[in-house]
Amino acid sequence: MELETARLRLDALQPADAEALFRYRSDPDVARYQGWQPETLVDAGRFIGKQSATPAPGAWFQRAIRLHRGELIGDLGFCLSDDGQAEFGITMAPAHQGNGFAREAVQALLDELFGRLDVRRVHASVDPRNTPSMALMRSLGLRQEAHFRESLRFRGDWVDDVVFAMLAREWPGSAQRTQ
Ligand SMILES: CC(C)(COP(=O)(O)OP(=O)(O)OC[C@H]1O[C@@H](n2cnc3c(N)ncnc32)[C@H](O)[C@@H]1OP(=O)(O)O)[C@@H](O)C(=O)NCCC(=O)NCCS
């Protein structure tokens, strides 16, 4: 699965990406609300090495987010269920946050999920303290469907979990595809 947008390319993570991935994924500001954080460059290399080549139900499938010249500026992943749903998450390197790149990358992902992969519902789980992530979900038009209070045990604390979702028929891209 390779996707191209006006400014970005989404494709497979490569062994050569390990250093860049390690740099932004181990940044405390980036890792604050995330379940996985590499401790070492070797961890980042292992993460890249265990990626599967095609999406499969029940497994996270990760894509690199690159500028057209090839530079890795983030990554996103999704996990399909076997009943036509998908959860997604995204991480951008600090130097490339706030430029609309995350929005552009997720828009391409949603087009692919609702289009070629025929997913009927997409959802994402966000810690409400994660202001940029809450803003990203809203700017994509995802609906906040739940705010669970202290429902997750995360690094020793009970934390809230906000669920955002969208159905295929609500994605603006789907109207264009059926015309
Ligand atoms: C969450 C994350 C990917 C968002 O990336 P980003 O670079 O801020 O996203 P974009 O530049 O595409 O901005 C998306 C929207 O959010 C808004 N936004 C971004 N940061 C914001 C902030 N701190 N406060 C208010 N709005 C903000 C932007 O203005 C934009 O809205 P618009 O399209 O209406 O203009 C990024 O902050 C990140 O990688 N965080 C660390 C990893 C993480 O926590 N991921 C979340 C897992 S789901």
TrEMBL record:
What are the entry keywords?
Answer: Transferase
Coiled-coil ranges per the record?
A: none
Q: List the InterPro entries.
A: Acyl_CoA_acyltransferase, GNAT_dom, N-acetyltransferase
Its source organism is Dyella jiangningensis
Domain named N-acetyltransferase: residues: 8-169
What's a Pfam family this protein contains?
Acetyltransf_3
Give any GO molecular function from the UniProt entry.
Answer: acyltransferase activity, transferring groups other than amino-acyl groups
Protein name from the UniProt record: GNAT family N-acetyltransferase
